[in-house]
């Protein structure tokens, strides 16, 4: 095998996908175990090579301890291509979920979901906020989340496979109208006839992360609990208290079904700008459910610096993902082709009430849609006028005393004269 000629021993296949194969091997010179990703021979064409070099470019650009890193590029005179990276011997999150499902165990606890997904959320937030445009992964799924056997300072997991990742300003590697990434983990806006041509966004990555969390908690994929037409048009997230789901929940999750419902309702909203603006905000909200809804001020999905009057043409405000994103800096807008979602009326004010899943566990996630205030509400919301300072009465008292003395003297004088 060509990898052995490159100085590797104990080469064995450990995974693969539509674009390449992943091997575990020992670097003979350095005496360390590594992972090697190679391009499939049948993909040594323009599209395949473009994706290979795109992944190398993305991994070189994204400086994060929460993503995989390339040690070196591999190539030979016969046209074989690959690259060496760190070996994660804990397998993938997909394998862990599959093992749990096959053993008929309940879903993961909230604590375990947070443990495995928080590093991925940090990776996404860092990618999305990179200057100048940020990177979009476009294929966040359990198979692309690698696990460590022992946690490091960066946690238990890392995000991998950046073959179709793009920067915000980069041209798409997949033709318009085709499903980008993996359908079961795609967002409504990228996997629906109603959204044909809708560009990928940071929100799509965050939506995929929420789909994974739902799957880990319930042992169901969201697509399994609805019809194909609903999946492609208007997705509805079932309540955690539904009997078929409830029986699969871990005891920790079963004690917080209504709180989890509120978090999932927002994270898996069909409209991108109503979701959590950042992946870590979603993980924070989910973690708060574990504590019975500890106080959490989830920031509004509509940034305060965005205009709150949405034109009827379907232009919705883009979410401000991260400090360095083009959306945040330019205040861009998403162009929606779905008329059922595009018809958003204009509103006057903006509701920024904090979300606390523990205070009112039966309530839905607070709406991020701006609300029109009545004149009475506006009047009552005005700050009270400061009390006017009391006038100084010292001068008046002195004048009154003086007049009284003069009158007394006058009366006394008259009495003496007439007497």
UniProtKB/TrEMBL annotation:
CDD domains on file: STKc_PknB_like
Domain (Protein kinase): give its ranges. Answer: 8-287
Molecular function GO labels:
kinase activity
Q: Cite the record's Polar residues compositional bias ranges.
A: 365-382
Its Enzyme Commission number?
2.7.11.1
SMART domains assigned: S_TKc (SM00220)
- The signal peptide stretch is none
Segments of this protein annotated with the region Disordered: 355-391
Q: Which residues bind ATP?
A: 37
Show the stretches that span the lipid bilayer: 396-417
**Short name of any one Pfam family annotated for the protein:** Pkinase
Keyword match ATP-binding: yes
Q: Which UniProt keywords apply?
A: ATP-binding, Kinase, Membrane, Nucleotide-binding, Serine/threonine-protein kinase, Transferase, Transmembrane, Transmembrane helix
Protein name as it appears in the record: non-specific serine/threonine protein kinase
- Which organism does this record belong to? Corynebacterium simulans
Q: What is the lineage of its organism?
A: Bacteria, Bacillati, Actinomycetota, Actinomycetes, Mycobacteriales
């Amino acid at each position: 095998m060509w990898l052995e000629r490159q100085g590797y021993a104990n080469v064995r296949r450990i995974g693969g996908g539509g674009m390449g194969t992943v091997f575990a091997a020992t670097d003979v010179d350095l005496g360390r175990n590594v992972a090697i990703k190679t391009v499939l021979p049948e993909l040594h064409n323009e599209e395949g090579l473009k994706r290979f070099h795109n992944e190398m470019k993305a991994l070189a650009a994204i400086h994060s301890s929460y993503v995989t890193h390339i040690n070196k590029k591999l190539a030979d005179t016969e046209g074989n291509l690959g690259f060496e990276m760190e070996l994660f011997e804990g397998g993938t999150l997909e394998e862990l979920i599959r093992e749990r499902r096959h053993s008929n165990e309940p879903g993961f606890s909230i604590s375990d979901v947070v443990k495995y997904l928080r590093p991925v959320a940090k990776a996404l937030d860092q990618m999305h906020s990179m200057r100048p445009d940020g990177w979009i992964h476009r294929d966040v799924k359990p198979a692309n989340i690698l696990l460590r056997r022992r946690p490091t300072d960066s946690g238990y997991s890392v995000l991998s496979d950046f073959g179709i990742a793009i920067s915000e300003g980069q041209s798409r590697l997949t033709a318009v109208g085709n499903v980008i990434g993996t359908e079961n983990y795609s967002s409504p806006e990228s996997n629906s006839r109603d959204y044909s041509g809708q560009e990928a966004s940071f929100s799509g990555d965050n939506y995929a992360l929420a789909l994974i969390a739902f799957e880990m908690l319930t042992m169901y994929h969201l697509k399994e609990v609805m019809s194909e037409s609903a999946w492609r048009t208007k997705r509805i997230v079932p309540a955690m208290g539904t009997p078929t789901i409830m029986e699969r929940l871990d005891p920790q999750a079963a004690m917080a079904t209504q709180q989890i419902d509120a978090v999932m309702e927002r994270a898996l909203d069909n409209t991108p700008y109503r979701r959590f603006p950042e992946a870590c905000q979603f993980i924070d909200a989910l973690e708060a459910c574990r504590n019975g809804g500890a106080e959490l001020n989830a920031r509004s999905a509509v940034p305060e610096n965005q205009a709150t009057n949405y034109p009827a043409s379907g232009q919705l405000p883009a979410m401000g993902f991260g400090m360095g994103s083009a959306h945040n800096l330019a205040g861009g807008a998403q162009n929606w082709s779905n008329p059922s979602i595009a018809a958003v009326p204009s509103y006057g004010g903006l509701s920024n009430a904090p979300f606390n899943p523990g205070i009112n566990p039966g309530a839905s996630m607070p709406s991020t849609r701006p609300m029109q205030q009545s004149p009475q509400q506006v009047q009552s919301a005005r700050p009270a006028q400061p009390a006017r300072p009391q006038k100084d009465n010292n001068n008046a008292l002195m004048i009154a005393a003086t007049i009284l003395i003069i009158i007394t003297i006058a009366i006394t004088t008259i009495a003496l004269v007439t007497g």
